[in-house]
Amino acid sequence: MKRHIWTQLIISFIFLVLLIVGLISLMTMSLVSDHFDKYVQKKHDTTLTAYKNELKVSYLINNGTWKPAKVKKIGVRALQDGLILVLKNTDNKIIWEPSQILLHRDTNTKNIDSMNKKNGAIKINSKKVALVQFSYNDALGYTRHDVAFINDLRISLAGISIFVFLVAIVIAIWIARDLSRPLRQIVSFTQAVASGDYRNQLPQQTQIVEVNALVNVTNELSRQLSKNQALRERLSSDIAHELRTPLTTIQGSLEAMIDGIWPIDEARLVSLNDEVIRLTHLINNIENIASIEHREDKLIKVDTDLSKLIQQVLNNFQSNLEEKRITLDYQTEKIIVAIDPNKINQVITNLLSNAIKFTQTNGKIIITLKRVVDNVVLTIEDNGSGIAEKDVPHVFDHFYMADPARNRQQGGQGIGLAIVKAIVVAHGGSVSVDSELGVGTIFTVKLPLNN
With a cut of 50, which residues of the chain have pLDDT below it? Predict the structure, then answer.
């Protein structure tokens, strides 16, 4: 049977309180009864000893003889205390017994045999002069005040237990509501988030660490979902825009050719083919980054000399460097690391291509490869145009271009750095950028050595 959390908390709390109060009450009554029984037994033994001493004194006062009147007086007082006293001589002959008194009181003498009995001897100078027997029932020693005390104690314990139980119910309801209120708010909030409403945030209003942690995680989840939603919307818009440009160019050219406005010649067909190639390249890049980010494109890792891999990429860009007369400062050491060489080749290619693209003629590029603790760190630094501060946080976003017109003129699609980040993250590493407009840019790639 499913219950609300506050109902479950109240039931659990009440059950726990009942158990604790019940155990404490039982233990208290048990201890009190045990100690009270010992007290009553001690008082009972003291009473028996007092009667024996009184009989002894009577014997001595009467010069070593037993006077029935004196013994009877003591015996009657014993009856008033619930004791049946029988006095016998050393030959076991009865000196005094209360038979006639018991009959006069309508006491059933047959019940005497079923009573508890305690025998003793009266001694004078260590010499036994008489035997005494006390008969009594189980309730002996419990006076009216003793019984009243026990009953009052039981009533008090019952009253305290009921009071504690009622207080516990109030506390349980308060605690349950205090705990369940933020949880109910979280449920309502997550339902709103599930429906696409990311506008609100949950307040932290409890002193419970775990609940506050849950609130923080839920708020962060909402923020991330909001960012992802905005990214998806922008990505859809960017993809549509990137696809629309070449398609519009192709459509316009074809319509002009069909209408006879433009002649169908080799130059125009080559231009159309270039647009198709650009469109195909864009689609391939989109598929590439999607497969990497969703781990569909499996990495094939092998132990690779990263310095040699960088040198191979540099060889491919040698003509580009010479064309712009860019000075290259290459500082590296031999580092073997488990990577997918094809994917990391693409990372280095994209970063170096960007550095060359945005570095002016006679500029400088510095490439550094070194080991830092458990990581291998690759930096590619240029003294090119740099990136505006407002654009730096977005350089790894899909289709983001700080200067769209300039990037498209140079063949950019705004997806190269997104591919770089996806590949590096897939390797368990990280990539960051530090740039200042008009000064230059530094890209830093960190890859774990124990990968």
Answer: 108-109, 404-412
